[in-house]
Amino acid sequence: MLTIRQNLMETIKGGNPDRFVNQYEFMELIMEAPMDLPLAPGPGTVVKNKWGITFSWPEGQIGSFPVHDDEHKVLKDVTNWKESVKAPSVFYTEEEWAPAIEHANSVDRNDKFVTAFCAPGIFEMTHHLMGIEDALMSLYEEPESMQELIDYVVEYELAYAKEVIDHIHPDALFHHDDWGSQISTFVSPAMFEEFLLPAYKKVYGFWKENGVELIVHHSDSYAATLVPFMIEMGVDIWQGAMTTNNVPELIKKYGGKISFMGDIDSGKVDHPNWSPEEIEKYVEIACKECGKLYFIPNLSQGLNIASFPGVYEETSAAIDRISKKMF
């Protein structure tokens, strides 16, 4: 029987896996690494991070999001971003790093990838600061200022990456940046190529130049038209690939250059009235349609969790069952 790590590599390299890679099992996420990007910790809470971004988690909702009324918006005029946007320090004490180092050192790297976590992504950071409407309009109306802001975020990410690499020496990176809705990208492929592709080539290139073997990018959205750019920027696995992307077709077209993790839409199975039978149905559809290579069955959610208790664990159990049938 292959180790978890071996099975992952056989899957994404087009070899001979002996079972499906089961969701996030190959990534040992080092969530103890100090970061200055907290989200609201739970329903009914409001927090402000060190960028000055306020996050609210309203009661009855399944997550938090930045507050962008006039009182809370960090950046109101992108042409004045230098006066409004101040990145926090990336330097932390050794005491603050200690839990992350201890966790990383405890991992059997022959079995799993020690995985650094980074969120929000570059595009997300622009609209967290100013609101998504302003961010999208600014790409058209103030491209020079937006390019400067993106470059500033990239420099912060590179500085933070160096600290993470120096302290925990990760084998993999799990990086968030949602690039679309369920049915379309937020920006055109041409605009993505102009603003975001160069930024990510710098960021992902730096991680890979410093020992990271595996780049896993999260975007639980439609992003099929951006796959060639993901390949160019160095993404090994696109996590969060929803069914609206026609994942089986993407595997046929791009398998061997990139792998796809998802095809079990969280919105279809992760709800208050979920059932094992419903999860079993969608897991079986995904696995049979996508096949054994270049595909990792997974909820589209961007961490090894679900919004409702039991959904993630039942999905993993269903993947184990279908593995026994198909391998």
From TrEMBL:
GO terms for molecular function: uroporphyrinogen decarboxylase activity. InterPro entries: Methanogen_methyltrans, UROD/MetE-like_sf, Uroporphyrinogen_deCOase. SUPFAM superfamilies: UROD/MetE-like. Pfam families: URO-D. Residues 47-303 form the Uroporphyrinogen decarboxylase (URO-D) domain. One of its GO terms (biological process) is porphyrin-containing compound biosynthetic process. It comes from the Bacteria. Gene3D superfamilies: 3.20.20.210. This is Uroporphyrinogen decarboxylase.
